[in-house]
UniProtKB/TrEMBL annotation:
UniProt-listed GO biological process terms: protein ubiquitination; Ras protein signal transduction
Composition bias type Low complexity, residue spans: 529-552
Keyword Lipoprotein in annotation: no
Record flagged with keyword Zinc-finger: yes
Database matches in InterPro entries: BRAP2/ETP1_RRM, RING-H2_BRAP2, Znf_RING, Znf_RING/FYVE/PHD, Znf_UBP
SMART domains according to UniProt: RING, ZnF_UBP
GO molecular function: ubiquitin protein ligase activity; zinc ion binding
Disordered, as annotated region: 1-33, 402-455, 516-561
Name the record gives this protein: BRCA1-associated protein
Species this protein is from: Rhodotorula diobovata
GO cellular component, one term: cytoplasm
Domain of life, per lineage: Eukaryota
Length: 561
């Protein structure tokens, strides 16, 4: 958005008035402030066509994205409160400018930063953030400012002599601290609604809602002049009568018998003092009474009893009517002011002049005193800076020595740690080796025990098998002996049977030959006889020595069993 301001410089004047019944006097001015009047227009960029390279370069030269705007800032938020609201970002702020909006009790604030990134960060941080912690607080709306254009109806006078031809501009001074208003050297600047500029740090400590310069230069109307009737209206219901203005923030509201918006403002903000525009009286909502124009009498020789007594001065209309009555006491209808009024006027003017001279002298002496204090403070600062430099040098040397000691200690610690680590590693290795050897010995003992038990078990089994085999062998030997005897007997019988069979076969063969030979054969009628064999005894003796016969006898015995 880009605000377009059409300023028209004017002079904010506090006019004076004439006494009732006297000839009109020319308006008197106690202070002036240059203000700029105009109309603020906000434009949103929509449907922008693609820019050329030259246009982009020109736009970058004209605007670098460092400006943002706070739209519809409430009127109760004065410059100090606004600076306190944006205090976390003041280090990056170059300048702040407050502009009065056409909406009642609203203003537009322009903030320029040193860097575009800080402006974007400020927009992200504060856009949508409430101004106060209360539930019904208004929301801060931050928009990016692409360009600012001013259309002036007149050209202001140049600040520098044009004949010189040099671009030299005298920097103004801050009215609070009297330092130059240079944003690059003194931090951010803020311009309030009346056009005066201050350092952000200076105005942040100013808790009054009024401008410090306007509060001093634009004094109240002189003497007992009645204020002119303004066209003020209630900010809520637009009522022009029974109006009260908050003496803290300037909010205008109607009385409790009209709409009660002034009292509602007290309930919302806690601003407890309100001034009645028509009479000038001030009402305190906390005490529920008038607290305007209360003064404390000084002690005097004529009336010592009045020491410290509080009295109330009459309001503006009452004072005006009383002054008019005194002025008309010595003059007829249409005549000028009386001599008493002129004498009183001269006294008041002399008092005002003396008071002005006193204020000027006091301010001059105060300025001299502050300048002397500032010079002494600068001397103390220089001495402190020199001492600080010495201390910083000493601290630097001590820090160097401390760093060297730290390095040595760190080196020693590292070496000790390395040696300790090596020893611990060796101890751990020896412990692991000892544990491994113990495990090996334990495992060997376990295996030996197991092997011994297995061997003992095998030995017992072998012994049992051997005993069983011994028993079986004895029985087998007995069986073998018996089988051997039986085998020998059987063999002898077989031999006998073989001999008998041979003899029988021989006899049968011989018979057949005899029968074939017939009765004429010489062997006809012969007889056969069997002679004992001489090998019978020898066969009986050799029978037991034949292993095959013994095996056959054993097999026959097993089959019988």
């Amino acid at each position: 958005m880009a605000p377009l301001v059409s300023p028209r410089p004017a002079s904010a004047t506090l006019p004076g008035g004439s006494q009732a019944g006297a000839e009109p006097r020319p308006s008197e001015t106690s202070g002036t402030t240059d203000l700029f009047f105009g109309t603020i227009h906000l434009y949103r960029e929509l449907g922008a066509e693609p820019s050329t390279t030259a246009e982009k370069r020109r736009a970058k030269d004209e605007d670098d994205g460092r400006a943002v705007g706070l739209v519809s800032v409430p009127g109760v938020l004065n410059a100090a409160a606004l600076l306190e609201f944006i205090a976390p970002a003041l280090d990056d702020v170059e300048q702040v400018r407050m502009l009065r909006d056409a909406t009642p009790n609203r203003s537009l604030v322009l903030v320029r930063f040193h860097d575009a990134a800080k402006a974007d960060e400020f927009k992200r941080m504060y856009d949508g953030k409430p101004y106060h912690d209360s539930k019904d607080s208004e929301i801060c709306h931050v928009v990016s400012i692409s360009s600012i254009k001013l259309k002036a109806t007149s050209t202001p006078p140049p600040q520098v002599d044009p004949v010189s031809g040099r671009e030299l501009v005298e920097l103004p001074t801050c009215p609070v601290c009297l330092d130059t208003l240079d944003a690059r050297a003194n931090g951010g600047l803020v311009s309030v609604l009346c056009g005066h500029s201050f350092h952000c740090s200076c105005l942040l400590r100013w808790r009054d809602s009024r401008c410090p310069v306007c509060r001093y230069s634009n004094a109240r109307q002189r003497r007992n002049t009645v204020s002119e009737t303004s066209d003020a209206k209630c900010a809520v219901c637009q009522s022009p009568s029974n109006l009260w203005i908050c003496v803290i923030c300037g909010n205008v509201g109607c009385g409790r018998y009209q709409g009660g918006h002034a009292h509602s403002h007290f309930g919302e903000t806690g601003h407890s003092y309100s001034l009645e525009i028509s009479t000038g009286r001030i009402w305190s909502y906390l005490d529920d009474e008038y607290v305007h124009r209360l003064i404390r009498l000084r002690p005097s020789e004529s009336s010592p009893a009045s020491d410290g007594r509080l009295i109330e001065l009459p309001s503006l209309p009452i004072a005006a009517s009383a002054s008019a009555a005194r002025a008309g006491a010595g003059a007829g209808a249409g005549a000028g002011p009386g001599r008493d009024a002129e004498v009183e006027q001269d006294k008041l003017e002399a008092l005002a002049v003396s008071y002005g001279d006193l204020m000027s002298s006091q301010l001059a002496s105060q300025r001299e005193w502050f300048e002397e204090e500032l010079a002494r403070e600068k001397d103390r600062v220089r001495v402190s800076e020199a001492r600080r430099d010495e201390l910083e040098g000493e601290v630097g040397r001590l820090r160097g020595a401390l760093k060297e000691a730290d390095r040595r200690a760190e080196r020693e610690r590292s070496e000790g740690k390395r040696g300790r680590d090596e020893l611990e590693a060796r101890v751990d290795k020896l412990r692991r080796e000892a544990a491994h050897e113990a495990d090996e010995r334990r495992r060997e003992r376990t295996e030996a025990t197991k092997a011994r038990r297995a061997l003992e078990k095998d030995l017992d089994a072998e012994r049992a098998v051997t005993a069983s085999l011994s028993r079986n062998l004895a029985s087998l030997r007995d069986d073998l002996a018996a089988q051997t005897g039986e085998t020998a007997a059987v063999r002898s019988e077989v031999d006998d049977l073989k001999d008998q069979l041979n003899d029988l076969l021989a006899a049968l063969s011989l018979r057949d030959r005899i029968e074939q030979a017939g009765p004429d054969s010489e062997m006809a009628g012969a007889s056969l006889g069997v002679a004992p064999a001489p090998r019978q005894a020898a066969g009986a003796a050799e029978g037991p020595r034949n292993p095959s016969a013994a095996k056959a006898a054993a097999r026959r015995k097993k089959k019988k069993k």
